Amino acid sequence: MMLKLSLWFLFVVACVQAKKRDSRIIKGKSAQDGTLPYMASVQVTGQGHICGGAILDSKWILTSGHCIARVMPNTDKLKVVVGTISLKAGGQEFNVSKATVHPDFDKSKLINDIALLQVSKPMEFGDKVQAIALPEKDTETGANVMVSGWGLTDNKQNAYPDKLQVLNRTALSIENCKEVLGDMPNEKRLCTVPQRKGTGICIGDAGNPLVEGKAIVGVASFVLFDCGSKYPDGYASVFAYKDWIKKNMS
Q: Are the C-beta atoms of 198 and 192 separated by less than 8 Å?
C-alpha cells in the first residue's frame, strides 16, 4: 500500500510540473525524412511547439487532452504543422477550427487524456503527409511499439532538437503495469517499458503517437520519476477510445 501511495503522489507531482517541462524523448534517434508522414506538431502562436499529434484523416488530428485543455478557451491560437521532421523548416501549416477534449477528462489524474483537433481546411496528402489507421484490436503484452516526437533529448538540454525523434518501447499489460504503479492504470490506458536503459518519454510529453505496425495504439499521457527511468510510461489507449474518436470525427 505504501508503494502505491508513493507512486500516486509522484504521479500527481509530475502532472503539476508538466506545465514547466514540455515534450521530450530521451536518447531516441532522429527520424528520416518522410518515414513518419502521420506526425503532427501542435503549436501555439508566439510559443511554437507544445505537443505532438497524429493525422487521422485530411481534417483531424489526435492528441492529448491535457495539452489542449491548458490552452482552452484560446484555441484560436492553436495551429498544426505536418509534412516535416523539422521544427524550423518545411511542412504545411493549418489553423485549428475546432478543439474537442474528452468530456470526462480529469486533469488532476489525467484520466480520459485524449483530444481531437479539426484543421481549418483539408491537408494535402502526399509522400510526407498521410493518415494513420486506428487499431483493429487491443495491444498485446510484449508488442514492439514506437513513439515519436520533438523535445529535449536529455535532462541537461534546454532547447528542443530540430529533428523529430523516434524511440522503440515494449507494451506492458495493464495487470503487469498495476503491479508497479498500483491503481493508476486502467483498461483505457496502455503502459510501455524501455528496451534500452535510460530511454523514454518525459514529463509533459503530451500527444505523441505510440504506433504498432501501421496503426496508432496510444497517445502519450504521463511518466513517473525522472526522464528515462525504468518505470512504465502511460498512454491513453486508442483502441479503448475508438468509438469516441469516430463519433466526434463524423
A: no
Instruction: Give Cα separations from 156 to 24, 31, 148, 152, 160 (angstroms).
Output: 12, 22, 20, 8, 11
Q: For residue 163, is it within any domain?
A: yes
Mean pLDDT by 10 residues, the chain (250 residues): 29 35 52 91 91 97 95 92 93 96 92 96 97 95 92 62 85 79 74 74 77 96 73 90 97
State the pLDDT at residue 172. 87
Same domain membership, residue 230 and residue 146 = yes
CA-to-CA dists, residue 70 to 16, 44, 170, 249, angstroms: 12, 11, 30, 22
Comparing CA positions, the residue from 139, 136, 115, 138 lying closest to residue 192 is: 139
Calpha distance 248→112 (Å, rounded): 15
Dist CA 189 CA 235 (whole Å): 6
- Overall domain count for the chain: 2
Asked if residue 142 and residue 89 are part of one domain, the reply reads no
User: What H or E segment, with its residue span, contains residue 161?
Assistant: none
CATH number of domain containing 147: 2.40.10.10
Decide if 78 is inside a domain: yes
Alpha-carbon distance of 179 to 26, in angstroms, equals 25
Please enumerate in sequence order all residues whose Cβ is within 8 A of that of 63, keeping only pairs 6 or more positions apart, or say none.
40, 42, 51, 52, 53, 54, 114, 115, 116, 117, 206, 207, 219
Question: Could you tell me the residue range of the domain that residue 231 belongs to?
Answer: 132-239
